[in-house]
Design a protein that fits this description.
Number of helices: 5
Radius of gyration: 20 Å
Shape: extended
Strand order of the largest sheet: 1-2
Number of strands: 2
Strand content: under 5%
Length: 159
């Protein structure tokens, strides 16, 4: 079993200064039971958080910063055919790494509702929309910014 502790060692000066003063007995106990592996660091300017790079590597995805093909990976796991391309071509995450802009690329799009107030903006939980598959399909087809062909249109996620 592998355990990944997100943001365990923040790089900010004030964060590092606060670490010795933290009282975290349960974390200390857990760390005493685990065997450390290589430390993976990222930069504050990275588009992809370090834990996503580690997770991607654990499933065999090696992609540049900001370009991890999670939707393609999920589609492959679901056994979905590759969209817009050769139906015989494998739909595997590595198939989208070299050419992320090619036809047949995947994306997850989640419909949501935003409420704009004078002092803040709030995004509702997408599941509270309670969209049916038909509702999702109609909304997807009405959008002028989305491609006209989608492989899947599910109530809370469009692929």
């Amino acid at each position: 079993m592998h355990t990944l502790i997100l943001n365990a060692a923040p790089s900010g000066e004030r964060c590092r200064a606060a670490l010795p003063r933290l009282h975290l007995p349960h974390l200390q106990q857990l760390l005493g039971l685990l065997s450390p592996t290589a430390v993976v660091r990222g930069a504050a300017t990275d588009l992809t958080p370090v834990h996503e790079h580690v997770l991607a590597a654990s499933v065999g995805i090696d992609s540049p910063d900001g370009l991890i093909p999670w939707a393609a990976h999920d589609a492959a796991q679901l056994g979905l055919p590759r969209p817009g391309g050769n139906p015989e071509a494998p739909n595997a995450p590595h198939a989208h790494q070299a050419e992320p802009q090619t036809p047949g690329a995947w994306a997850w799009i989640t419909p949501c509702h935003w409420t704009v107030h004078t002092d803040h903006v709030h995004m509702d939980d997408p599941h509270t929309l309670a969209l049916t598959a038909r509702d999702a399909e109609v909304l997807f087809r009405c959008s002028p910014t989305l491609p006209r062909t989608a492989s899947r249109c599910m109530p809370a996620t469009w692929a």
